[in-house]
Write a structure and sequence with these properties.
By secondary structure, the protein is mainly alpha-helical. Helices cover 64% and strands 0% of the residues. It is built from 6 helices and no strands. Helix 4 packs across helix 6. It is globular. The termini are far apart. The relative contact order is 0.19. The structure holds zinc ion. The site of zinc ion (ZN) has 4 residues, from helix 5.
């Protein structure tokens, strides 16, 4: 799973659109405040709620581009809607995600957040 995640992060970093998403300072502060374990719980909640259903509500528009670090990670990792999930991760639309897929997405998002967190904390 780690290798797959690293490969995926590498491909995403080659996309001009995806690699343009970054954590803002207030998001870093939010992570400092909550801790990464709590952020991971939020990631499960958001994926379960916004991406996992067979037919997610407002699919394509369900993920904001601000406020929560997990939202930014979802855009950066191609996990913002079922169209992007199908394109980037070959997970077909129109059916509910299974446990392994949810696990994979959350681990990918958390890896992206960790890398971005380290980078951004050094700059500020
Ligand atoms: Zn999308």
């Amino acid at each position: 799973m780690i290798d797959l995640i690293e490969q995926k992060l590498y491909s995403l970093s080659k996309s001009k659109f995806r690699s343009n998403f970054h954590l803002r300072k207030y998001m870093i502060e939010y992570i400092n405040d909550k801790g990464l374990d709590k952020i991971k719980e939020h990631a499960y909640d958001f994926i379960n709620q916004k991406i996992a259903p067979s037919n997610p509500k407002n699919d394509g528009k369900q993920t904001p581009t601000k406020n929560h670090p997990v939202f930014i990670a979802m855009h950066a990792c191609g996990c913002c809607c079922r169209t992007c999930l199908e394109k980037w991760h070959h997970i077909p639309k129109g059916r509910e995600l299974n446990k392994n897929e949810i696990e994979y997405i959350v681990n990918l998002l958390m890896k992206w957040i960790e890398i971005e967190y380290k980078k951004t904390s050094e700059i500020h």
